[in-house]
Amino acid sequence: MDTSWAPRGVTAARAVTTAEGHGNVAYDELGCGPVAFSETLRTPTSHSGLPQLPLLQIYAHVPHPDGTSLVLLTLSTTATSHRDTYRTLLRRITERVAFEDPAG
């Protein structure tokens, strides 16, 4: 996602504070830089035809080192009682994010 330039920590914080309905916010410094984690809990509308199960969506907002881009990783599950496990899983995925030119 493109974003207006700001220091990476500010970009991470801004991503979750401006996102509607996001809660359980946490900030951390990982190998890839500052990361903001957040969650939403949504239930499909009754006329959508989808099962009426709550859907937990966990997000990792990872600013690119150039300060003008943001990577958004999302993990979704209906197993809301396993929130901590899925949050740990997304954190481990995020720890492997690298901003390197694959061509070298």
Envelope shape: globular
Task: Note the gap between the termini.
Answer: 23 Å
Q: How do the strands of the widest beta sheet line up side by side?
A: 1-2-3-4
Radius of gyration, taken over Cα atoms and rounded to an integer in Å: 15 Å
Please state the structural category: alpha+beta
What is the tally of beta strands?
4
List the secondary-structure elements in sequence, H or E: HEEEEH
Low-confidence stretches: none
Number of alpha- plus pi-helical segments: 2
Sheet with the most strands?
Answer: 4 strands, antiparallel
**How much beta, percentage-wise?**
25-35%
The overall pLDDT average reads: 91
Helix % is: 10-25%
Oligomer: single chain
How would you sum up this structure in a few lines?
The protein has about 100 residues and is of the alpha+beta class.
Secondary structure layout:
Layout: H1 8-17, E1 23-30, E2 33-42, E3 55-63, E4 70-77, H2 83-94
Antiparallel strand pairs: 1-2, 2-3, 3-4
List keywords for this structure.
104 residues, alpha+beta, 4-stranded antiparallel β-sheet, 2 helices, 21% helix, 34% strand, globular
Protein described:
There is one protein chain. This protein has 104 residues and is α+β, with helices and mostly antiparallel strands. The chain is 21% helix and 34% strand. The chain has two helices and four strands. 15% of the residues are buried.
